[in-house]
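Changelog-adjacent note: as of this version, every example in the card shows the full chain rather than a window. The one below runs 146 residues end to end.
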Amino acid sequence: MDIQIKNHYFLIAGVLAILFAATHAWNGQSAVLPTLFVNEISLDTRIIFSYVWHIITVENLIFGIVFMILAIQSDRSKIQFTAWTITSLLLVRLIIILGITVYYDVSALAATLIDTIAILIYVALIILGITMKGRRSMSSQSSRKI
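Full-length structure tokens:
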């Protein structure tokens, strides 16, 4: 099987997204979700929080798979639309995280620093991958095959 990587930025973004999904799931199962099993929190709230947590995990996994597929594609118009769509979702996610944190407890903003940096690096890699058009593609510089 001869698969050429046409966009290394998307490949890296895909691997990062899958790692984000794994760490999000692990953190949720080991630290966040078990704290919901206190008597003061209603069952409905626990259910909603649990499925929202898992939705984000699965979104990250799907983003990772999509970017790994985009890394080998050559149709720029479809690639760019998909990448910009995912980028906008990630930036809106970041705005919501920061906005809600500031709204409820501005002093907790420092706790979002790692997530903020991770999302910004992730978005930067995606934008680099999108803007490769004007540059010589990485695959033409070094033809790597999987």
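Structural remarks: The helical segments are 8-32, 43-70, 76-105, 113-130, 138-141.
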